[in-house]
DNA sequence: AATGAATGAGATTTCATTCAT
DNA sequence: GATGAATGAAATCTCATTCAT
């Protein structure tokens, strides 16, 4: 649970200690505010105010709003992906176990926290800020995709999963988790649309279903077709 | 079917027709632009320009940007939901067939078209525009939920589906579709992150897996647990 | 003498007429303010206010402060240079007469008016705004130099002037005029340093001296050496 | 002699010397930066950085940016003027020789060095900083004018020069030199407008011409009129 | 004495909305 | 009815100056 920042604490914290903690405090405030309002709508000044400093101070630490956002992304997503990749590299148990671990860790540390809101921002504003689009692709999308798709391929290679199309399966695997994260920070955060729901329950249901469907065993053959025979509409994801 | 706006002076269409077609053209232009840029970032003037009229004219038809957006939502989502509800009300075949029809229609007419971008806008900006949040909840969320959740309940009542928690299952059912729609209009539209993928393939895979998992039959009992026994983290969707 | 703009004149001028006069009024206000404060220090809002409109209106007509400045330069300098070039092209009297006409016209229409202040701005800020530097070089410096240097060469070709180094002579010719223009808008405009002086007297003195010195006749040979024999310090103008 | 600042840690200079040299280094850095960017646009922090100290230290030595600038002016201009005045006071050779010495010294020690850039600053920014205007008038303009005008009067009194209007002649005398100094630090420093030219050649040409014209001898009477008989336009230098 | 963290006024530019023509 | 000129509230970012350490 993201702990609230303590109030300014006028004299308690000596200058020196404050200064070292500043970037952290600013990043935390920025994460919160970006998630609440989005990148464009979040005002730098409010980020600063929430971290208990003035506008000018924010700019001492981060040269622009865009760089501030990048720092938020790095702090909250990059580390986790790197850890996941390390785990995957040395893991030698069954692949579905690896997948479960990766996805659960993601949910616990990202999806269910404020960091999950970053995806809302990306989804919402990537088209308006090409610089951020590129950054996100390089810093998050590519490594994360390599991690999950790589794990699926490992599973297929080891005969644990059927030979499914990897890109599509990757998306099907993570879509509900991302969607839940998105939801929590948008409609789910609105009084108007509030509707209590157990996110973890949804996720577990989803995971159970999908991992089950991926399994190599020929159980109930034909019941699950990887590729539907329907009309080939050209609905390609750009 | 969404057609491109004609260039400023289409000799074919006499002035009379243009005038009557105005609202349509404005709505179409607004849909496109809102989806491209988002609600806040789309400029009224550009909407007007894209519809071939002036800013002032736009305001003659819609009293504010917010009302324009509402009209876009009504035109593109409300009608489909109503149709779906009508279908559900008089349908008496198997429930999974009904669900397939509803979801396929949604994909064909919303998810795979510009209208699907409305969800991106909602996800991104509800929190910044409470008025829109309320409107969306009333106009889309509640009726759509009633339609899908109602169908699930019908299926359970008729013994076609197992007794799953309806709210969670509804979400798990629609999440990947919404997610794909979102994706198409955000990361998927960015050159930086372009990655060809067959959306329909993802959807069919997903539908097959999930509907399969929902079925009442005791097939491979235990393989799919509706509720995971793991630690009950309080990760409730707000 | 630059006539002051009339006060806003609330109802007298109909919307339409105002609109057509706007760019002119804005350019006039911009010229005045740029000359008073310099490019960087002049505030867009004050330019607008001086033209009797609001900040936003200024930006309807000129997309940025830099473009506004360019428009001011074009209006006040480019036209005169072009006229001068035309005169030179069809002039067939004695070259010193041509030079006198060119320089007097410059003084009357630029040097002695607010437009002369543009040189102050260029001198002061060209290094801080490379975009303006390039613009000025292309739009003013090169054509003006061609005009004057060309005239000197014509004079030399026709045997009217001695074979002086053209570039240096061009500078020596215009330096005092530019300097006077500069002076009028800087130190000369300060109460602290006010010192009445007859600009035209200075100029005529200068012209007389220099044109006299340039003449081809061998009068008092040696009295005026084009190039001093002193130690060749490498004091080259960059 | 202006030497480049040493890099941050010059082993050769012990801490002691550094400390004593501080004001010098700061003044040198300030001169360079003021000349490059102008008074308003030069950032205090960059001055400090260029002198190898921190912002705070700069403020320890000079209480404000304006005072720093004044110190730069005093160091670079006042001394030379005082020297010139001393020379003039005890000089008893021909006046044109005195003038040549004064102007050449000025060019060698000011016009051709970074100090010459101070005039660019004055020209550009006096109007925006009345405090500096007053300071400059008192500290530079008045004494310098007294020196040159005094010398002219001496020459006239001694019958060496004709009875020219002193103020105008003073200006005509120094204008090209100032102009060249200005030029070197503005347009001349811009790659866009670079045009090699021999500054000293221009100056010598000018000096030769003007001193020649001033001479008392009735040489070629009428060729050089001190005051043109043309229409008396009221083009007075403010 | 020296540092550099902090401040906050201020500058350019954007855009929803109004309303005279 | 249609137009587009005009407004002015914001929002990002800069920098001289102060002062705790």
Question: How do the strands and helices of this protein lay out in sequence?
Answer:
Four copies of one chain form a homotetramer.
Chain A: H1 15-37, H2 44-50, H3 55-61, H4 65-90, H5 95-111, H6 117-125, H7 130-157, H8 166-184, E1 197-198, H9 199-214, E2 236-237
Chain A binds a DNA duplex (21 and 21 nucleotides) through residues 14-16, 18-19, 22, 43-45, 53-57, 59-60, 63-65.
Structure report:
4 copies of one chain form a homotetramer. Chain A has 238 residues and is mainly α. Chain A has a domain at 70-214: Tetracycline Repressor, domain 2. Helices cover 64% and strands 2% of the residues of chain A. Chain A has helices spanning 15-37, 44-50, 55-61, 65-90, 95-111, 117-125, 130-157, 166-184, 199-214; strands at residues 197-198, 236-237. In chain A, helix 1 crosses helix 2 and helix 5 packs parallel to helix 8 (166-184). Chain A is globular, with a radius of gyration of 21 Å. The relative contact order of chain A is 0.10. Chains in contact: A-B, C-D. Chain A binds a DNA duplex (21 and 21 nucleotides) through helix 1 and helix 3.
What profile does the largest beta sheet of chain A have?
A: none
Radius of gyration of chain A: 21 Å
Question: What is the overall shape of chain A?
Answer: globular
Number of helices of chain A: 9
Helix content of chain A: 55-70%
Average pLDDT rating of chain A: 81
Biggest interface between chains: A-B, 79 and 80 residues
The fold-level CATH name of the domain at 70-214 in chain A is Tetracycline Repressor, domain 2
Poorly predicted runs of chain A are 1-14, 217-238
Q: What string, H for helix and E for strand, traces the elements of chain A in order? A: HHHHHHHHEHE
How far is it from the N-terminal to the C-terminal residue of chain A, by CA?
36 Å
Write down how many β-strands of chain A occur, each being a DSSP E stretch of 2 or more residues: 2
Helix vs. strand class of chain A: mainly alpha
Strand content of chain A: under 5%
CATH class of the domain at 70-214 in chain A: Mainly Alpha
Chain oligomer state: homotetramer
Tell me the CATH architecture of the domain at 70-214 in chain A: Orthogonal Bundle
